[in-house]
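[Q] Does anyone have a clean structure-token version of this?
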Amino acid sequence: MIRSLLARLAPPAPARAPRPTRPGSGRGPADAAPGRGRRARLRDWAELLRVSALFTVPGDALAGAAAAGLRPHRGTAYAVGASLCLYEAGMALNDWADRDEDAVDRPHRPVPSGRVSPTAALGAAGLLTAAGLTLAARAGRPALVVATALTATVWAYDLRLKHTPAAPTAMAAARALDLLLGAVATVSAPTATRTGRGTTAGASTSRQVLPHGKGRDGGPPATPGSALRAAAPAAAALAAHTYAVTAVSRHEAHGGSTLTPLTALGTTTALGLLLARARATEGPVPAWSAAAYVRTAAVPCLHAALNPSPPLTQRAVGGGIRAMIPLQAALAARSGANGTALALLGLVPLARTLARKVSPT
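[A] Here you go.
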């Protein structure tokens, strides 16, 4: 009894301070630390914008410049920047337009899951589009015209054409225009000096056109129109590949198609064989690039044709997206730009690594 009375009279022991928890440990309010919130938001936006597919974009402009017989310079850099912005604008707009459908088929995507609001996705699409057109304008009026056509194609695809039979054609046209943008921006960017016939070195009103040593008829194309004509075959090859991949992607949610991946397999194999046929003076780089292209694109298509399940169909689409890099390298090598081709091939392992963390589809 005495002991109990003494315990009541004693002052209460000081409250023990709670032990802080580490961010991300799953215990306590420290999980809401600002640092972790920023990382989570960055990952949400990386997933929305498919950043793992960004490595497939710069090669369009570089292959376009090479196909037109030009060395890349500042105008090509503007085209690359414009392409990156317009590509990401299309990704954001795609998820905004598909938010109701994704709520049923892909509820884990950033917009239907609530991790990115529809307003933010649409706003990002608008800002990225404006940035892309601004960069294209820096390369000259002809480049802005091509970029405007590319923008109209991207927005028409996402808002209207995606769920129509015209979807593969629209996507193929967008990729072809992206390659042509690189050719036109390289020849039309107002920089310094034109080295062609009838101009004077150092003239302030001329433009810089730098051949990589294999210009047709002794020199590179001197006008945007001739650059477009020279790059048209490469644009057609990229469009054919894009058409095949887009056709397969229309079945990635539910699978079930054997003929579509089989057709894509035939398309990619035929393109690879055509690109591998190079003149002896071009060395082995075209063949290497073409082999890497066929291996990346054709093998997943074969698996999807044998078993058209949604996972294998999605893998075929992802392989087709990554295969654009060696395809661009093969197109550049066919034009004699082996240095550009090797640089592009160096992006392949980076794209593969990032695709394991963020899906390109």
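[Q] Thanks! Anything notable?
[A] The CA atoms of residues 6 and 12 lie 12 Å apart.
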